[in-house]
Amino acid sequence: MLKPVEFKKFYYIFPQSVALIGVKENVMPVAWHTPLSADPPLYGILISPKRFTYELLNRTDGFTVNFLEYKDARLIARTGGVSGRDCDKLKKFEIEYIQAQQVEGVILSRAYGAYECEKYAVQRYGDHLLFVGNIVQVYIKDGVVNEQGVIDEKSVAPIIYFGQDRYITIAPEKIHFISRSAVGSRMLLNGQNRGAVRRFRSSPATPGDGNTVRLTVKILRSFAGNSISPISGRSLSICPIFQIWQRRKRSCLNFRSVHWSRI
Ligand SMILES: Cc1cc2nc3c(=O)[nH]c(=O)nc-3n(C[C@H](O)[C@H](O)[C@H](O)COP(=O)(O)O)c2cc1C
């Protein structure tokens, strides 16, 4: 059961990704960074005024954001453990880079993706400043995203910060595709499918394992009542929800008009 607690480091109760921010010839890791707008493409980084990076940001019009992998954890710890005021981090840690094209910052050769951002706005929030950048250039390593521009979980092991100097990464075999339109609002069109949504959410399953098979059977029964028996070896090998959604999309607009006999 959840209990109210005294909090200090409230930001350590959820995982965060880490990026290396480049300003002029210096880099620093941030765990506090986020997309802010898709159009225009705005990205925010939160920088304490204690950082040398903060001083540099006040002297230039942009910054870079470099996305690294789990294997780069040591580099992140190193660049976050020393200030650019005291040493040239790029030289000291032998960091390979190219200069950004449109802003004063570096693009790291080991990054799997990066942004160049022009300074768009700055706002203080308590003990940090939000620097908002307008993304003017995106870089991505070959083979890291699919045709839709979405990161491929098998090609990249992104670094995730777990708080207090702990780093962790993803387990690609745990990836779980759930079509939001299949399990979300469209299902509410038909009240009798709500049970299926609840059951799905309460029994997360990995595609291909034994749970998925049981889940498939449950969901199909619940959707289809007596009129369906579509379970074949092929249909069990990929995410069942996706398959239902794909077939439904082809044959009808909502659950009330599903012709289950077509499946
Ligand atoms: C994993 C990690 C995440 C960090 N996140 C932030 C952050 O979001 N904002 C910030 O101001 N400092 C953050 N820091 C601290 C700075 O990276 C660190 O103080 C760094 O040495 C500052 O470098 P600079 O003085 O050269 O700018 C983080 C450090 C680590 C190791």
UniProtKB/TrEMBL annotation:
Start and end residues of each Flavin reductase like domain: 11-154
Gene Ontology MF annotations: FMN binding; oxidoreductase activity, acting on the CH-NH group of donors, NAD or NADP as acceptor
Pfam families cross-referenced by the UniProt entry: Flavin_Reduct (PF01613)
Protein name: Flavin reductase like domain-containing protein
